[in-house]
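Researcher: Please predict.
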Amino acid sequence: MKKLLAIVLALAMVLSLAACGGTGGSGEKTLTEDGKMSNITTAVSSEIQNLLPTNGNGNPKAQFYWNIYESLFTFNSNMEFAPCLAKSWEVVDGTHWNIHLFQKIYDSKGNHITAEDVVFSFEWLISAGESLNFDIFKGITAVDEFTVQIEWTQTPTATADIEFPLTRTFIFDKNEFNETTFATAPVATGAYVVSSFITGSEMVLKANPDYWALKTDEDVSGRLAVHNATVDTLTYRIIQGSDTAEIELEMGNIDYCDYIKYLSLEKFQNNDKYVVSVEVASDYAFMGFNMD
């Protein structure tokens, strides 16, 4: 008698190991004159193909985008909208929201970011096919120099409905975008600028001394501290394979890696050179039959 082999979804508790070495990467860590850590070198498991302001939401290793670009809002610890490039919003009616920008936003080349740049950034993201989870987003227009109006197809009923348009759409200067190769040398609205970029190998970011939020006389106290640069130089090294990354961490060539194998946990936990953080997450494996 033949038996059916049932392949089912298996839910597993996955331990993701992140190890930080205190003296890896570029050697002994020192502080700069303005109190920043001198440098941090981070391992990245997947290749960085380009630095275009796509939202990068499908790639968990795309943290470097958030150093270069900024969105209208971010989330605070209570999962509430917090100011980023926009300082506030008002609900005009159920499907129309007015978003008010800070008025003295300048990118790393000194371009003044206005409502027209926000509209361009949204429209470019949509035309590029990267507008993930824009299901109820209908359109965006400039009301005045520092106000945009977003129209929804229906009244938002949950934060998740509008999370991606408001917190994961990167803003940039429209004229600069048409004149500069953002794929390799983007002009930043975030706290870091690209110092060097080698496709598939390495990217180096430097803290922007002219970061707009440090220079403005507007009240930016509502912005989260996470936006500020606390390290002078950030280096992202492409290291494919956890075994290789583990060796590089042990040799002191990198400072941080979040894809070390769980089996290596004990080795790093028992070494006072490292700080180990274990994150419990869910994952599953799926196998489907093709009915042949």
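Model: The two ends are 20 Å apart (CA to CA).
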